[in-house]
Structures are given as C-alpha cells and as structure tokens.
Specification:
Layout (H helix, E strand, L loop, with lengths): L1 H20 L5 E11 L2 E7 L2 E6 L17 E8 L8 E3 H18 L3 E10 L2 E5 L4 E5 L18 E10 L4 E5 L1 H17 L6 E9 L3 E5 L4 E5 L20 E10 L4 E5 L11 H4 L5 E10 L2 E7 L2 E6 L21 E10 L4 E5 L7 H8 L5 E10 L2 E6 L3 E6 L9 H4 L8 E10 L4 E5 L7 H6 L7 E10 L2 E6 L2 E6 L20 E10 L4 E5 H16 L8 H12 L1
Parallel strand pairs: 13-15, 18-20, 23-25
Antiparallel strand pairs: 1-2, 1-4, 2-3, 4-5, 6-7, 6-9, 7-8, 9-10, 11-12, 11-14, 12-13, 14-15, 16-17, 16-19, 17-18, 19-20, 21-22, 21-24, 22-23, 24-25, 26-27, 26-29, 27-28, 29-30
GO molecular function: mRNA binding; structural constituent of ribosome
Organism: Litorivita pollutaquae
Function: Binds mRNA; thus facilitating recognition of the initiation point. It is needed to translate mRNA with a short Shine-Dalgarno (SD) purine-rich sequence.
Length: 559
C-alpha cells in the first residue's frame, strides 16, 4: 500500500515538473545560446528544445549583432516543434513584446522614449523603439521642415509617444515635441536675459517678404522690413543675407508668446531730425523716384527721407493720367517742397511747381486779340477745343464760331484734327481757361456796319427779297427784315408787292440789338416821324390848317 502511494506521489511530481519546464507557446521564454553557425544562433529554451534565430534579429538598426555562445536571451516561442523537430522561436518578437510593455508604461506616464530613425516611408519615417516599430510623421521631425534627414538616420534620440494601439500594432511618435519643449526652456532663459531697448548681436536665420528672423542665441526675433533702415526697403534681401551677423535693438518682448520684435534703424541717427532745416518750404531739390502708386509717386530726397508727389501736383496739363506715364521708377526728378509734417514724417512735394505755369506763359506771349492756330482736339455740345502751344487747350464757344449762323449749325462744319485759326478773347490763369473766337478773325462786321447808327436814325436800305410777310433789306452788308405792318402808315399801302428787288428805301431804325446782331427797321415809323416833324414846324391841326395844307407847305419848304 505504501509503495502504491509513493508511486502516485512520484507520478504527480513528475507531471508537475513537466508542466513547469515545458514552455507555453505564444509566450516569451529565456534561452541560452549554445552555438552560432551559418548566420544563425542556436538557442536552448529548455526541456531539450532548441531553436534557430537569425543573427540580424539581435542587432539594432544600422548596427552589428552583439551575441555570443553562452549568452542568455529572451525569445518568443511561436511553436514547440516544427517539421524538423525544432522549436520555432523569434528574438524580434520577444523584443517587440518587451518593448510594448515598456512603451505602454512610458505612454501612460507621458515619459520620453529612446529610439532611432531607420527608414523613410510615405508621409514620414519609421523609428525603432527598442523592438517596437513606430511611425514618425514628416511634420513631427523638427520644428521647421527638414530638407535632408540623412544626419538623423540611425541616431539614438528621445521621442514623445503621441498615440499607440497595441491591438493594431500602431505607434505614432514625435521628435518635434521634444525639440519644442527644449526650445521653450531655452527661449525662456534667453528672453529672461533680454530687455527692451537693449542692443544685441544676432545671425540672420531666414528671410521673408516682410522681414527677417534673427537668431539671438537660441531664440528668434523678427526684424520687420520697416525697421531695417530709415529709407524705403522693397525687400529684406536688399540689405541682408542669410548667415550674416547683424547688430539689432530689442524693440518689444511679449512675455506670453515669447515673441521678440527687433530693429536695426533704431541704432542709427534719424534723418528726420534735420529735415525741417535741410528742406525749407518752396525749396527745389533733386530726388529719385522710389515707388509709383495710383495717387502719386514717392521721391527719395536722401536715404530715409521720402516725400509724396500727389498726382494733382505732377503736371500742369495732364490731369487724368496715371503717375506711371509721367515718371518712372529710379528716375531722377526736380521737386519743390510744398509742406512738411514732422510729426507724421511726411513731406509733400510738387513736380509741376518746378516748371512755369503754361497758362501764365501763354498769357504773356499771347495777349487778348492775338491770332493763334491750332488743331481741333475735341468737339463737344458747347464748343470746340483747340490745341495751343505749351500742351494746353483753348475753347471756342458755340457763340464765337460764326456771326451769321447759329452755333449749333456752324459747329457742324468742323471735324476733329482740323487746323483752325482763332483770336484770343480771354485768358483766366487761375481757372486755367483760354477763350478763343473764330468769328472775331475778320473783326466785328456788325459794329463796323452800323457805325454811328442808333435808334431813331434814318438810313437808306436796298430791297433784296419780297416775302408774303414783308420785305428783306440790306444795309452795309447786314440783313434785316421789315414786316408788312411796318411797310407804310397807310394800311392800303402795306403791300410787299409794291416794292421790287433793288429798290432803295429810306427807313427809320427802331432797334439796335447787338446780341442778335439785328437792326429793327420801319418805313411806317419814318413816315410818322416825318409827319410829326412837319406839324411842329408848319403848324398844328388845332390852328385850323388842314393836314394837306401842312404837308403841302412842308413839301414847298423842302423844294
């Protein structure tokens, strides 16, 4: 009986030993390197189980394998026996399992992990984290885009785990987070030693359209293009180059954002301190056009001092022309100082003021009454514009085109480009207007014709036409019309047909209209005037004498 019990105990102990020594498939077990041959390490994992592992599985990326006979290593038991009776084991999988355990703890504690970049893949790089492979996105390699990642390959360095999923085998890491943290600490230290107004030395690190970034020894400051020089700088590359050492002044420090504003011109003398003395009002200077806009052109008087020539001060004659058609960039021009605002650092300049007013010149050389010749530049509803010397225009109003025709009719005879002659009738320098007259070329025919004729005068006219409503007559080349009712005092004689073309008739002037250039004439008025004069001279109807007697006496007196 005792023997039977001891046998049962032995069997139980034997089974227990089998269970303890037999490793479980899918787990990490310890083994011992018993041989190295044909690029493989033969490892005894216990219970008379041996397996083979490629030597490269014992090497870190970019390094030679470190393994020797007798070394104890951990391997992953994939299967207890294969077709050749050997255990199927993997050092790489063991390292991965070990690494995942370690990395999960580091991720939970938000600790840094060490790894090495060993390959480039789409969108980034792969990193060996001591057995586990992680993905490093390209945006997380550095704080700025990396053009050449060669120096970083195979280099052991810290990383921050951003995301990990063991079930899917995904790990995402960042090198940038580590750099930013270190950079923030370094920036805080450097910024703590800087003060506003301090002059420091830095190296130009990058140049943009709006300025340059200057490295002050671990922290960058922005040197804006407007703070590089007192003069206008179109692009920072005009005065700076990457890698150049420059002296700058700290203008402003933002303690919250750690942003630093720098300036170079603040270390130089401000040319505006002497502007008022060097450029008195109405003084003329030579400058260089630096910039052209829709509203004018900027002219540099000296480095750091620019003035604006407004478009209205560029030309006496070119009113609606873009400044770029009058001056060009880099052109040297003479300008006059019109106004200085030292507080706003503005100088108003004039280009046209350096040249004589063409209207003044014209007024001096072409007084009123001077005959001029020019080309018809434009035809409008109110007159003609004639090109004159000095690139200015004069206007011939409709009323000044012809003596005889209506202006609307007379203007139809002219075309753009016609060369015409006219007389200067008025020059208004302030309003920049020149009035011309074409009809005045031959003098005032009406004034010459009527001479001393005035209302009440008796003149002799010649009948030129017989109309139903009266007769047309001519006096010294001036046409007039006598209505039927003015042909005679006697209604029976108020017949146009009793006259013939060419008849000479004495008429009385009833009106002189210089504006319409017409004489008002009447035979009836002459007869009434003659009757009145006869009555006054030879008696009145009240004295008993008949009208026939009076007129008979008057006729005898005339004889």
């Amino acid at each position: 009986m005792a023997q039977n019990v001891s046998m049962e105990e032995f069997e139980a102990l034997l089974n227990e030993s089998f269970e303890m020594d037999t490793p479980e498939e899918g787990s990490v077990v310890k083994g011992k390197v018993i041989a190295i041959e044909a690029g493989q390490a033969i490892i005894d994992v216990g219970y008379k189980m041996e397996g083979r592992v490629e030597l490269k599985e014992f090497a870190n990326p970019g390094e030679a394998p470190e393994i020797a006979v007798g070394d104890e290593v951990e391997v992953f038991l994939r299967s207890a026996e294969n077709a050749r009776g050997e255990a199927v084991i993997s050092r790489e999988m063991a390292r991965r399992e070990e690494a995942w355990d370690r990395l999960e703890k580091a991720y939970a504690a938000e600790e840094r992990v060490e790894g090495a970049i060993f390959n480039r893949v789409k969108g980034g790089f792969t990193v060996d984290l001591g057995g586990a492979v992680a993905f490093l996105p390209g945006s997380q390699v550095d704080v700025r885009p990396v053009r050449d990642a060669g120096p970083l390959m195979g280099l052991k360095q810290p990383f921050q785990i951003l995301k990990m999923d063991r079930r899917r085998g995904n790990i995402v890491v960042s090198r940038r987070a580590i750099l930013e943290e270190s950079r923030a600490e370094q920036r805080a230290e450097v910024i703590g030693n800087l003060t506003e107004g301090q002059a420091v030395e830095g190296v130009v690190k990058n140049i943009t359209e709006y300025g340059a970034f200057v490295d002050l020894g671990g922290v960058d400051g922005l040197l804006h293009v407007t703070d590089m020089a007192w003069r206008r700088v179109n692009h920072p590359s005009e005065i700076l180059a990457i890698g150049e050492t420059v002296n700058v002044q700290v203008i402003k420090i933002n303690k919250d954002t750690h942003r630093i504003s720098l300036g170079m011109k603040q270390l130089q003398d401000d040319p505006w301190d002497l502007v008022a003395g060097k450029y008195p009002l109405e003084s003329v200077h030579t400058g260089r056009v630096t910039n052209i806009t829709d509203y004018g052109a900027f002219v540099e008087l000296e480095p750091g001092v620019e003035g604006l020539v407004h478009v209205s001060e560029m030309s006496w004659t070119k009113k609606n022309v873009h400044p770029g058609k009058i001056v060009s960039t880099s052109q040297e021009v003479e300008v006059m100082v019109l106004e200085i605002d030292a507080a706003k650092r503005r100088v108003s300049l004039g280009l046209k003021q350096t040249m004589r007013n063409p209207w003044e010149v014209f007024a001096e050389t072409h007084p009123e009454g001077t005959e001029v010749e020019g080309e018809v530049k434009n035809i409008t509803e109110f007159g003609l514009f004639i090109g004159l010397p000095g690139e200015i225009d004069g206007m011939v109003h409709l009323s000044d085109i012809s003596w005889d025709e209506r202006g609307e009719d007379a203007i139809q005879s002219y075309r753009k480009g016609d060369v015409v002659q006219a007389v200067v009738s008025e020059v208004d320098i302030d309003k920049e207007r020149i009035s011309l007259s074409i009809k005045a070329l031959g003098g005032d025919k009406f004034s010459e014709a009527i001479g001393g004729v005035k209302r009440g005068s008796i003149v002799t006219v010649e009948v030129t036409s017989i109309e139903d409503g009266g007769i047309e007559v001519e006096y010294e080349g001036m046409k007039s019309f006598i209505r039927r009712s003015d042909l005679s005092r006697d209604r029976a004689e108020q017949r146009p047909e009793r006259f013939s073309v060419g008849n000479k008739v004495d008429v009385r002037v009833t009106n002189v209209d210089a504006k319409t250039r017409r004489l008002g004439l009447s035979i009836k008025a002459r007869e009434i005037a003659e009757e009145k004069e006869a009555v006054e001279q030879y008696g009145s109807s009240d004295s008993g004498a008949s009208l026939g007697d009076i007129l008979g006496a008057a006729l005898k007196g005339d004889e």
